[in-house]
Amino acid sequence: MHKAFFLLVLITGLGIQSCDSDRVFDEYKSVSTWNKDSIVTFKFQELDSLEAYNLFINIRNNSDYKYSNLFLITQIQFPHGKVISDTLEYEMAAPDGTWLGTGFGDVKESKLWYKENVSFPEPGEYEVRIKQAMRKNGEVDGIENLEGITDVGFRIEKTTQNN
Question: CA neighbours within 13 Å on the CB side: how many for 146?
């Protein structure tokens, strides 16, 4: 009985790991209330400069999130000082209010495309910064404290053409 259970756990674990073989970096940071001045930062070391990678922003939200979209300001800082900044908008809910993310219960997870076929040619540490940039319609000032986002993640995957 114990051998069968151990074998089942081992096969399941290997199956899960092989399904995620494209993953190079995957990290989450918890946020309870995301202040407009709070920056979520991810750092990673040099990757194979001959490979191309796809970048994703992962967002976990619950029913306290009151909006159908999400605006983010992102930056990638390269080791030698180059910075690439982007302002991004993502749909988080369908027109009927149904969350687009996956998951059971109150928390939904959205895997959002950030950049495609990116290379990291410089040796050293890279830094990705993510900041919320939500505003209410017709208002200039941003939402001071954004509720309903529970975690912000950053993921790097090998492109499928590399496999």
Answer: 28
The identity of residue 138, as a single letter, is G
pTM: predicted TM-score of the whole model, two decimal places: 0.83
**Could you read off the pLDDT of 76-95 as tens digits, one per residue?**
999 999 999 999 999 999 99
- Cβ-contact 160, 23 below 8 angstroms: no
CA–CA dist 50, 30 (Å, integer)? 33
Residue-level pLDDT at 19: 57
Q: Are 65 and 92 in contact (CB under 8 A)?
A: yes
List all residues 6 or more positions away from 50 whose beta carbon is below 8 Å from its beta carbon: 119
Q: Which domains does the chain have, with CATH numbers?
A: 23-162 (2.60.120)
149 closest CA partner among 52, 46, 72: 72
- In a 3-state reduction of DSSP, which class is residue 120? coil
